[in-house]
């Protein structure tokens, strides 16, 4: 296994992202698996995923020709395109005034590639690729998605606020790329 990090650039890569997303959606995995492995809440259409990628290419981890992980890049300009994320962007705008932030659209790793450093690798590549243009990365994680929440904090995200939207409790997180962690 040789994992390489890239920016998504082909239709095939985008289709593989959607397949990985579909296989890890909260609606299709068991409660036990959600607790142990985490899950993704939002599923995208090909059209929106491509528009987001055309604006600022997504981060992917590949093993040969296979996409084994992705970290979606979502510019604030897309704040009205996914209704579930509108409250997240409103909170980001209020908590991070005058900050040129990106939204972490979603991160997911194929089941048989987890616990191999790919999560951390994608996030470091993400920062390396985009630090010159953006101040940091904002995202939200469902409070009950403890695996994802702890993983985000281990990379450098801090909780800014807990918010309940449509009956779901969310942790709103920010990774300040200019903050030096000691």
Describe this structure in words.
The protein has six helices and seven strands; from the N terminus they run E-H-H-H-E-E-H-E-H-E-H-E-E. The chain has 182 residues and is of the alpha+beta class. Strand 4, helix 5 and strand 5 (136-142) form a beta-alpha-beta unit. The longest helix is centred in the N-terminal third of the chain and has 13 residues, at 11-23.
Question: What is the secondary structure topology, with strand pairs?
Answer:
Blueprint (H helix, E strand, L loop, with lengths): L2 E5 L3 H13 L7 H7 L8 H10 L3 E5 L2 E9 L11 H10 L5 E9 L8 H13 L5 E7 L3 H10 L2 E8 L2 E9 L6
Parallel strand pairs: 4-5
Antiparallel strand pairs: 1-2, 2-3, 3-4, 5-7, 6-7
Mean pLDDT: 89
Given the C-alpha coordinates, what overall shape results? globular
The number of helical elements comes to 6
Strand portion: 25-35%
Series of H and E elements: EHHHEEHEHEHEE
Q: Calculate the terminal CA-CA distance, rounded to whole Å.
A: 32 Å
Helix content: 25-40%
Over the alpha carbons, how many angstroms does the gyration radius reach?
Answer: 15 Å
* SS elements, strand count: 7
| Helix-and-strand structural type | alpha+beta
Sequence of strands across the biggest β-sheet: 1-2-3-4-5-7-6
Largest sheet: 7 strands, mixed
């Amino acid at each position: 296994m040789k994992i390489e990090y890239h920016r998504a650039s082909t239709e095939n890569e985008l289709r593989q992202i959607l397949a990985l997303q579909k296989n890890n959606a909260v609606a299709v995995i068991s409660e036990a698996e959600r607790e142990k492995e985490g899950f993704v809440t939002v599923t995208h259409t090909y059209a929106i995923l491509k528009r987001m990628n055309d604006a600022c290419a997504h981060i992917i981890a590949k093993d040969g020709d296979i996409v084994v992980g992705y970290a979606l890049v979502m510019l604030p300009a897309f704040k009205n395109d996914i209704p579930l994320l509108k409250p997240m962007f409103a909170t980001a705008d209020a908590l991070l005034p005058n900050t040129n932030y990106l939204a972490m659209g979603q991160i997911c790793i194929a089941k048989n590639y987890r616990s191999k450093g790919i999560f951390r690798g994608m996030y470091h590549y993400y920062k390396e690729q985009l630090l010159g243009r953006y101040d940091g990365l904002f995202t939200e994680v469902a409070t009950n998605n403890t695996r994802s929440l702890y993983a985000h904090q281990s990379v450098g995200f801090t909780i800014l606020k807990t918010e309940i939207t449509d009956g779901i409790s969310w942790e709103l997180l920010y990774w300040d790329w200019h903050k030096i962690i000691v």
